[in-house]
Amino acid sequence: MNNIQATLVLIKPDGLKKSLTGNILTRLSETKLEIVAAKVVRVSRELAETHYCHLKDKPFFPELIKYVQGELHDRKKVLAMIYWGEDAINKVRALAGATNPEEADPTTIRGSYGRITTKGLYENVIHASTNEEEAEREIKLWFCPDEVIVDLYPTNKVKKELSLRVWA
Ligand code: IDP
Ligand code: MG
User: What pTM did the predictor assign?
Assistant: First the structure.
């Protein structure tokens, strides 16, 4: 009981291109989890490759990197969010459905909206962390501590001389 977790959710470029953001957020709201961070991200190659580093030896890796960077959908962005609350990781994974959209239960997000491309890539509209270790790695990769409204992991304070862009 009381297994409070955080999980990274990405609405991938196909989800954005298909105008599924509203539907997906509505589905995710069934979990009663809280959104504690959200932003639109233009995904660099480095971010894409680091996020999917566990798949770097797979034949579909180059296509996967293009996919998450939005090069297959002319939508060079993803919506990145952190969902937080009781059993967040499994709750979101259950709603997302299986990795292969053809094997995913048709009532899940991937089962409803995903497809397999002619090149064999699973376009499955959403990413969700699979376990606590992966969630921590991914959240730290996609978000800085100050972008999250709750304290998830220990932080350090560093003094840096920064050159920031501000509104003119
Ligand atoms: P997950 O997204 O369900 O956690 P992962 O194994 O982490 O699945 O794979 C990351 C992404 O790579 C998947 O969401 C999907 O877009 C793609 N992918 C995974 N396995 C395959 C495959 O066997 N063929 C084609 N694409 C795949
Ligand atoms: Mg995964």
Answer: 0.97
